[in-house]
Write a structure and sequence with these properties.
Structural class: alpha/beta
Helix content: 25-40%
CATH superfamily of the largest domain: Metallo-dependent phosphatases
Largest sheet: 6 strands, mixed
Order of helices and strands: HHHHHEHHEHEHEEHHHHEHHHEEEHE
CATH topology of the largest domain: Purple Acid Phosphatase, chain A, domain 2
Shape: globular
Radius of gyration: 24 Å
CATH architecture of the largest domain: 4-Layer Sandwich
Length: about 400
């Protein structure tokens, strides 16, 4: 029988859950009750339990009956209520996949971005990630998965099978419109993606995640877009080249300028997406905050540090390639006519990171991996990027093509 608990208040739901579990899982009560912090009780008759339900429906002799609208087993409801410290209402509304009961929780948080699964070699990498390695862990996906909605859904579903929880924000690629006759504009597509994620159980809103029996962290997605210097010079991360070489052809080279379709709205694109974070930024977070966005929040994160340059040189040497400095002088790495900082990010994003008190902020977009601490915040970029970039030694720290653990911090 299917018990719909959606219209009950939390205390009523909790009572109903306990009653159903007593009836349906009596053979395993000694295992289940400790997970609920309930004392062991005397055996009771089925008729007594059924009477407590006051449901009016005939009961069936079937230990596999479901008691939530999300097709979650009885054992799973109990374990999740305790393990993740979600409310009963949350557990009913959010579909959860089956996990073995554990007495002690130690949940890690991983991050990655720029999966670009439109490329078969990248999809092959992701398909190799196994729940054997991550089934109790959470994953932050900081945008640029694919511009195809069916492929995006397929990829997120796979990640949900591998990880306990998946958090996500769209990047610029997701907002590309390849079929204008099917997708109205980039803003409409963005909201379609968010709706799809909610229906799937992929998290795009702030959520408290239990990482141990005694601790939790807040995972906080921040929607964003970049400001070009023409749109808003104060908000832009644009860095004017000191010695420009030739014509700046960035506008024509940047695919967003060809594949994004924007409706009319007041203000800049950056401010539009920043305003979507208003309620998020007004919340009070009592546990450590792990925030993430697709775009960069600071100008000083654009250029590589000495340490990051050394890592690139080491990787290129390992691959038998010439120095990155020499290659860059020849225009082999970054085209001289393209200035990425036009499209890097926005400063309003940094203000929001500070407002919510982030301990760690994850970002993507640039396809250059970083792990820095700036003014008390740890900034992490861990992109999969393109195969050609990995082969050129430009995407460092991802030699195993796996997500990066960001919590707890690995010393």
């Amino acid at each position: 029988m299917l018990y719909n608990l959606g219209d009950m208040n939390p205390s009523t739901e909790q009572s109903v859950l306990k009653n159903k579990i007593k009836l349906l899982l009596k053979p395993k009560m000694k295992e289940i009750l400790p997970l609920m912090d309930m004392p062991e009780i005397e055996s009771e008759t089925e008729s007594d339990s059924v009477a407590e339900d006051n449901d009016g429906d005939d009961e069936e002799e079937n230990d596999d009956r479901e008691i939530t609208t999300s097709n979650t087993s009885n054992t799973e409801v109990v374990r999740r209520l305790r393990a993740s410290q979600l409310t009963v209402e949350d557990s009913v509304q959010r579909p959860m996949k089956l996990r073995p009961a554990v007495s002690a929780i130690m949940r890690r948080v991983f991050a990655i971005s720029d999966l670009h699964v439109d490329y078969k070699e990248n999809m092959d990498i992701i398909q190799q990630w196994s729940p054997m390695d991550y089934e109790n862990d959470a994953l932050i996906v900081a945008g640029d998965v694919t511009d195809s909605l069916p492929l995006l859904q397929q990829t997120l579903q796979h990640l949900q099978q591998v990880f306990f929880r998946v958090y996500y924000v769209p990047g610029n690629h997701e907002l590309w419109i390849r079929k204008p006759e099917q997708e109205k504009d980039s803003i409409t597509k963005f909201h379609q993606i968010i709706t799809m994620c909610k229906e799937m159980g992929v998290v795009t809103e702030p959520e408290s995640l239990c990482v141990s029996n005694m601790a939790a962290v807040w995972i906080v997605p921040l929607f964003s877009w970049y400001s070009t210097p023409e749109e808003d010079s104060e908000d832009s991360l644009y860095i004017k080249p000191q010695n420009p070489v030739g014509e700046d052809k960035s506008h024509n080279m940047w695919m967003d300028n060809h594949l994004c379709i924007w409706p009319s709205f007041e203000g800049t694109r950056s401010k539009y997406f920043a305003n979507l974070n208003s309620q998020t930024c007004m919340k009070q977070y009592t546990d450590p905050v792990l925030s993430f966005s697709h775009f960069l929040p600071r100008t000083d994160l654009v250029k590589p540090s000495d340490k990051e340059l050394a890592e690139i040189e080491t990787e290129r040497k390992r691959l038998g390639l010439e120095s990155a400095v020499e290659a860059n002088k020849k225009g082999h790495i970054n085209p001289r006519s393209f200035n990425f900082t036009r499209y890097a990010g926005c400063k309003v994003l940094e203000a929001q990171i500070r407002q919510i008190g982030s301990s760690v902020h994850v970002f993507g977009h640039q396809h250059r991996n970083k792990d820095r601490r700036v003014d008390g915040v740890r900034y992490v970029s861990h992109c999969l990027g393109y195969k050609r970039e990995r082969a050129a030694g430009l995407v460092t720290g991802i030699e195993d093509c796996a997500p990066k653990q960001i919590w707890p911090d690995i010393v």
